[in-house]
Amino acid sequence: MKYMIASDIHGSAYFCRKLLDVYKTSGAGRLILLGDILYHGPRNDLPREYAPKEVISMLNECKDQIYSVRGNCDTEVDQMVLEFPILGDYALIAVSGLTIYATHGHIYNQENLPPLQKGDILLHGHTHILTAERFGDNTILNPGSVSIPKGGNPPTYGMLEDKVFRVMDFDGNVIKEMNLGE
Length: 182
Description:
Oligomer: single chain
Number of helices: 3
């Protein structure tokens, strides 16, 4: 199965719409959201077309296709309006012989590792900076931010298919690629 991975929408109807347009044509079977879905947070500027109610409506339309974890800006109030679970601190995803520990990144990250075994993959957002690199016996992946990228990066999302992780921009360009099976 092909997975689309996105983080840090932060209530941007503009970028949520772009994300879902790509998702619908990508052939991905699931959309993995790594938190910070509706609120922009006090440290961020308002993203383009900040309209959380529109984001709610768009995401609820595909609620049965979303896996999500809680970001540091996500709350119980957000869960009351979103029709898919968002308050789990992490999700374990087993796909193609890979074990992926998916989390937002504000608690568990490369500096504070979750309980990983040799070969496991840590997948998170939060930093708004795309990453695909090996560290020790593990791999760390970050699709960047859909709406408020940092580090000079464009708005990005990730795709995982056949053990290949790609970070892409909304023009379809591959920004970073890593074969997770090697």
